[in-house]
Specification:
- The protein is mostly helical.
- It has one domain.
- Helices cover 83% and strands 0% of the residues.
- The chain has helices at 14-49, 52-72, 76-82, 88-120, 125-133, 135-151, 155-178, 184-204, 218-287, 291-318, 320-328, 335-345, 349-361, 365-386, 390-415, 422-449, 454-474.
Length: 475
Amino acid sequence: MAAPADPLNAAFTAETIKTLSVSGAAATFAAQAIKFVVQLGSRVALARLLDPRDFGLIAMVAPVLGFVQVLNDLGFAQAVVQRPEVTQKQVSALFWINALIGLGLTVLTVALAPLIAWLYGEPRTLAITAVLGSLIFLTSLSVLPAALLNRQLRFGPLAIADAGCQFVGVVAGLAAAWSGLGYWSLVLMQVGTSLSSLVILWCFTRWRPSWPRREAGIGSMVRFGANLMGSNMATYFSMSADNILVGVFGGPVALGLYDTSYNLVVRPLSQITAPVSRVAVPMLSRLVDVPERYAANYFIMIQTMLLAYLPGLVFAITLARPLLLLLLGTKWEGTIPVFGWIASGGLVAPLFASGGWLLTSQDRTKELMWVSTTTAVLSVISFALGIIWGVIGVAMLSAICFFFLQTPLLLRVATRSGPVSTRALVTALLPFAVATGVTVAALAALDTVRPDGIPGLVLLAAASSWQQSSVSLEA
């Protein structure tokens, strides 16, 4: 799609939104497929070239950087996407505010580097934190260009930027690892990704910021963003406290095993949820005044996403041992039980993400902030209790909490008002729940009768149950 004449505001009919969303989703999924292959291949290659300790050192720094990144993401991008109209002065003001905050947080991160090294008793994290912290400012400069492309429904350029920067980063990381740079190859991979993303996004975005001035409407956009930042901060704690606990009590090797297991589940899932979320929020924001079309499009997206990822995740859980040993090697055998539990929790991850679409697109970010805070508290409690039993305990209790407490709570809040009702959501999800249950039961029976025959029989056992989900989606 070519850039509209007005880089800030463009008029879209319902039919145009549908067309752009379909084509944008196709482009985004194509980019995510490329990213999946690149990320999986690089992860396998780096696992062969590096040791668990190398990954653990980077994972030690990740929670601190993640927290700073949350502070850097003030929700301005979503505010720009969600608002019906924005002005040059508004967007420019948000850009400069974000840039200044990014610069300040970069300085703060570098200053905290000695404290991080002291906390873990690992002096090598000092330089890692300083280098990765410098990327925060660069990331802040990319926020508004990406938001404007999203607002314009220009998903093609966004897909190119997403896949392109990933490719550049992986090439840099693999070259460094092959040269024997150890954990620094993981650092250089992130540097390459951030720099290339910044360049690509600004090349595609026609908009350029003007000098900041006061403008009506900034206050409401900042409040909207502040609520989202509160939600993001709560999400950060729920996703990072486990790394901190495992790193402090288990050390870099245990954390390397845990973090690798987590990423083997979360990164492939993000290849599905991230592109759909990118399309969902701007599309639903423009359909919020047409409840029937809003609900219909939401259900199409969530059902398509479930149909795309649930079978593969169930198979990955079942075949965890041979799959991980084949990809990573015997030195990573400790990831097998951890991977299984994390993947089990991941079965409902897209549903959790979709609750955010509903609350954000309906301008209910205050509700999103409070429910995110509640689910984060539940998550941290599960980590704290799980660490008693080590890495496996953290993975097990967090998966159970996420599946049975956090996700149902968020979906209930998101559907208690608005175009999507709780009853309608349950009805739409029922075929997938039945299909998953039948598949798991069939796999358990096969494992009991003939364990060595599972790989060849998995697809046969699951085919009939997943067929009913596809029929439901077509209907």
